[in-house]
Design brief:
alpha/beta, Rossmann fold, 2 domains, two-stranded antiparallel ribbon, 14 helices
């Protein structure tokens, strides 16, 4: 077990106990509002605990927007929503400088902050925005600050982007560039609920009263849990499994039979994302240290948007999900 980053194991245990209690309460509160999407909820919580950004992909009507709004309330974050459209400009997100005249008659510029200055930004249908606007968001996601008129403006802490994307309607949409996709810690695929969950949705959401979430954490609580995630011990076997998996997905490094259909594979940021997400998932599941099962479960959400198939492989009906499943079976024992 690698414990080199634990200065005080006793303090870590106490901090972890507090974090586990709060995360359990958050899961329960979200589960009272979002039905039939336990996996999606856990992945979204994992993303926040790991300090990253998430990309939720699913058809309309699957409660993606409601999930993000509920998350913001439950974990106590200042949340704002931006509906992305083709005519959305960078200044509509970042903010802009305006000329003002003071009482003394002197004129000067004042910066008016845009909606990106929120602790949780919901970017609804992010692929509707132009590449120029997407690039403006890129710096904020990676560096946690924006530059307007040559001046740097730091974003609040914590800062997270949860973006949604509709995989069906591509007319008038701009595919996210690889550099932008790589900034998302996890890609969270949102599917249809099962029959029992959908029945509960019908009963719970069409009555006189609608369930409303309550805050059970604060931004400070979330940041404390994020510190626990980064201090949590991780076994050497888990580290090696992450390295084996990520490197096996790169053409020229992995098994030629497994990588023959891969156009380009995951980079070092994928390994970083998988390691942080594995630690965070363990905490969501009530554990301090991640296991090989965490790595296997998170392989697709962490790698799917960081890989691409060759044209020949796509023509043959190959999918990224199937490739990742074979990589997991090969590398994680």
């Amino acid at each position: 077990m690698n414990v080199t980053n634990i200065a005080d194991p006793g303090q870590l245990t106490r901090d972890a106990d507090v974090a586990l209690e709060r995360i359990s309460a958050a899961r329960a509160e979200i589960g009272g509002v979002i039905f039939g999407q336990e996996r999606v909820v856990d992945l979204a919580l994992t993303t926040l605990l790991a300090g990253g950004h998430g990309l939720l992909i699913g058809v309309p009507g699957l409660a993606k927007t409601k999930l993000v709004e509920t998350l913001g309330i439950v974990v106590g974050l200042d949340a704002l929503r931006v509906q992305f459209t083709p005519d959305l400009m960078p200044t509509d997100i970042l903010g802009s400088e305006v000329m003002e005249e003071g009482q003394d008659g002197k004129r000067g510029f004042r910066f008016i902050r845009g909606p990106i200055f929120a602790q949780l930004l919901m970017a609804d249908e992010i692929n509707r925005a132009s590449p120029r606007t997407q690039s403006a968001l890129l710096q904020a996601m990676q560096e946690h600050h924006v530059t307007v008129a040559g001046a740097r403006h730091d974003l609040p802490r914590p800062f997270h982007v949860l973006a949604t994307q509709n995989p069906l309607e591509q007319e008038g949409a701009y595919p996210l560039p690889e550099a932008q996709l790589d900034r998302f810690l996890l890609q969270i695929d949102v599917g249809y609920p099962d029959r029992a969950a959908e029945r509960r949705i019908l009963i719970e959401t069409t009555g006189e009263r609608d369930a409303r979430p309550k805050p059970v954490m604060t931004a400070e609580d979330l940041m404390a849990a994020q510190r626990v995630v980064r201090r949590a011990p991780i076994g050497d076997r888990v580290v090696e499994a992450i390295l084996d998996l990520v490197r096996a997905g790169r053409p020229g490094e992995g098994d030629p039979e497994l990588t023959k259909g891969i156009g380009w594979g995951p980079g070092p940021r994928a390994a970083q994302a998988l390691m942080l997400a594995a630690r965070a998932r363990a905490l969501v599941d009530g554990r301090l240290s991640p296991s090989l099962d965490d790595v296997a479960t998170l392989a697709e959400p962490a790698l799917k948007h960081r890989m691409a198939l060759s044209f020949a492989a796509r023509a043959e009906g190959e999918t990224i999900s199937a490739v990742i499943a074979r990589l997991v079976a090969k590398t994680i024992q």
